[in-house]
Amino acid sequence: MILARHTALNATATIIAAAGRLALTTLMARRLGPDAFGAVVFAQWCAETIAAVASLGLPNVLARYCPELALASVADRRLRIRQMALAAAATLLLATVGSVAIFTWLDGGKGAAAVAAPAAWCLAALAASLASALGAGLLRFDLILASNAAFVSVGAIAVMTMTRPGEPQGAMLVWTAASLAAVATMVGGLALTRRASVAVGEQGLAPARELRSYAVNTWIGGLAATQLWTRGEVGVVRAFAPPAELARYGAATTLSARVMQGVNLFQCGMTPHLAKAWSQGDRDRIERLVRGLSGVTFAAALCGSLFVVLFAREIVAGLFGGRFEGAAPALILVSLGTTAAGAGTVNMAVQFATEGRFQRNANLLGAVALVGLAALLTPLFGIVGAATARLVVILGNGAALVWMLGRVGFGRLSRDVGLRWAASLTLLTALAAVDLIGRATLPLRAAMLLSGVGAFLALWYEARWLTVMEALLPGLGRGVRAALGAGGPS
After folding, report:
1. 3-state DSSP of 416-456
2. pLDDT tens digits, residue range 209-268?
3. Total Cβ atoms within 10 A of residue 355
4. Which of 61, 122, 206, 421 is geometrically suited to a Cys-Cys bond with 210, CB 3.0 to 4.6 A?
5. CB atoms within 10 A of CB 27
6. What is the distance between the terminal CA atoms of the chain, rounded to a whole angstrom?
7. pLDDT top residue among 352 and 268
C-alpha cells in the first residue's frame, strides 16, 4: 500500500515537472527568439554540468542513506546530519567558485549580469537537486510533488514578467526563481511537518568510508549518464553552429526528452520488485517481470516516437513557433533514439547482475563517443549531424544492454527483446523515410500512424496475435513466430 502510494506520488510529481518544464521552455523560446534562446540552452548545459560536477555525488548519498537515520541513536543521527550539512555547504561553495570562474571566462566581457545570472542558476539547480534527494531519502514524496508544483507555478509567473525578446539573462533568472521556490517548499515542508522517528539505539550507521565510496562511484556514473542521456553534445554544437541553430537543437532535444520521460513512467515502482526477486534468486520471476514490462515500455516508446516522427514539423511549429521549424529533422532523428528507453527494464536486471559496473562503463564510453562523433559530424551536417551522433550512441548503448542481458544468463529474453526491437526500429525508420522523402500529406501520415501503432502492438504482443494468425493461416503464423522468436509477454 505504501509502495503504491509512493509510486503514484512520484509519477505525478514527474508528470508535473516534465509537462511544466516543457510549457515553460516553449513559452520562453517564443518570447526570446532563436538567438537568445540558443544562449539559454548553452547556459543551461553549463549550469547543470557544473552543478553535477560540484555535487560530488551527495544527492545520491542523501537518497540512499537518509532512511537509516530513523533507526539510529540520537547522537549518531545528529552526527550524520552535521556531516551531511557540511558536505552540502562544501558542494554549494564549490559550485559558486566553479560557476563564477567558468562564466567569467565565457562571458565576462559582456558585463556582470552575463556572469551573475547563469551562476545563480547553477547554484539554484544544485540546491534543488539536493532538496529533492533529501525528500526522496526521507520518503517525503508528497513534498517532492509540492516542490515540483511550486517550481512550475513560480516559473510560469516569472517567465511572463522577467523575459524580454533578445535578453537571455532574464530567462536564466526565471529558472533560478523556480528552483529556489522548489527548495523553499521542500525545506519549509520538512520544518513544518516533522515526523517523529523512533530511535532504537541498536542500528548502527554506515561508516563514513562507505558513504564516500558510494558517492564517488555514483558521481562518476551519474556524470557520464547525464551527458549521455541529456545534452552532452551541446558544447560541440555551440562551437560549430550559430546560436539560432543551437536553439533549434535545444528544442528538438527538449521534446525528445519529454517523450522519454513519459515512457519511463511505465517503470515507476518496478525496481523494488526486481530487487526482491533478485535477492531471493527467483530468476524466473525476474524474466517474467522484465519481459512483460519491456513489452509495454518498448511499445509505448515506439508509438510515441512514431507520433513525433510523423508530425515533427507540426509539433515544433505549434509549440515553439515558426522560427524553430528547422528543428524538425533533428527531432526526427533523436526521436528514433527514444526507442532505447525500452531498454531501461533490461538495464535493471543487468545492473543487479554486474553490480552496476557494466552500466557505469557503458555510460562513460557512450559519453565520450557522443562528444567525439558530434565533433566529427556537426561541422559537416550542422544540428542534423549532432542528432545523428546522439542517435547512433543511444542505440548502441541500448543494444549493448540487450547483449549483456544474454551474457548474465537471460539468453532467451535477450534474443526476444533484441529481435523485436530491431524489427520495430526498422519499421519505424521505414515510415520516417517515407514521410521525409515523399513529404506525405496529413491524412496519409495519420493513416501511417494508425498502421504503425497496430504493427508495434502486434509485434510486441505476438503471442496473442499469432494464436489467431496460426488458426487462420498456419504456415504464415508459424513462419512469423519462428522469425521473431517464441513467446510473448507473460
Report:
1. HHHHHHHHHHHHHHHHHHHHHHHCCCHHHHHHHHHHHHHHH
2. 878 888 887 788 788 888 887 778 998 999 998 999 999 999 999 988 888 877 777 665
3. 10
4. 206
5. 18
6. 24
7. 352
CA angle in degrees (0–180, nearest 5) for 9-13-15: 120
Q: Is the pLDDT of residue 466 over 70?
A: no
Q: Rounded to whole angstroms, how far apart are CA atoms 366 and 224?
A: 8
What DSSP string runs through 126-160? HHHHHHHHHHHHTT-HHHHHHHHHHHHHHHHHHHH
Burial call 205-214: b when 16+ CB within 10 Å, e when fewer: beeeeebeeb
Give dist(CA 56, CA 218) in Å, integer. 9
pTM of the model: 0.80
Q: Biggest alpha carbon distance in the chain?
A: 74
Mean pLDDT of 28-40: 92
Judge contact between 9 and 144, C-beta under 8 A.
Answer: yes
- Residue 167 is classified by DSSP as B
Strand residues in 322-468 grouped as ranges (E) = none
Give the separation between CA 262 and CA 266, rounded to whole angstroms.
Answer: 8
Residues 248 and 34: beta-carbon distance below 8 Å = yes
- What is the C-alpha to C-alpha distance for residues 270 and 261, in angstroms, rounded to an integer? 15
- The answer for residues whose C-beta is within 8 angstroms of residue 486's C-beta and 6 or more apart is 416
By three-state DSSP, how is residue 311 classified?
A: coil
Parse the chain into domains and list their residue ranges: 1-194, 242-490
Nearest residue to 461 via CA among 426, 432, 489, 421 = 489
Q: What are residue 164's phi and psi, to 5 degrees?
A: -130, 150
Cell of 126: 544544485
Instruction: Report how far residue 240's alpha carbon sits from residue 81's, in angstroms, rounded to the nearest whole number.
Output: 46
Q: Which of 172, 135, 185, 178 is nearest to 20 (CA)?
A: 178
Summarised one tens digit per residue, pLDDT across range 159-215 is: 999 888 888 999 999 999 999 999 999 999 988 876 544 444 455 667 778 788 888
**Distance in angstroms (rounded) separating the CA atoms of residues 135 and 182:** 11
How far is the C-alpha of 444 from the C-alpha of 428, rounded, in Å? 15
Instruction: Judge whether 79 and 43 are in contact, CB under 8 Å.
Output: no
* Bridge partners, residue 164, by sequence: 167
**What is the percent of the chain with per-residue pLDDT over 90, rounded to a whole number?**
33
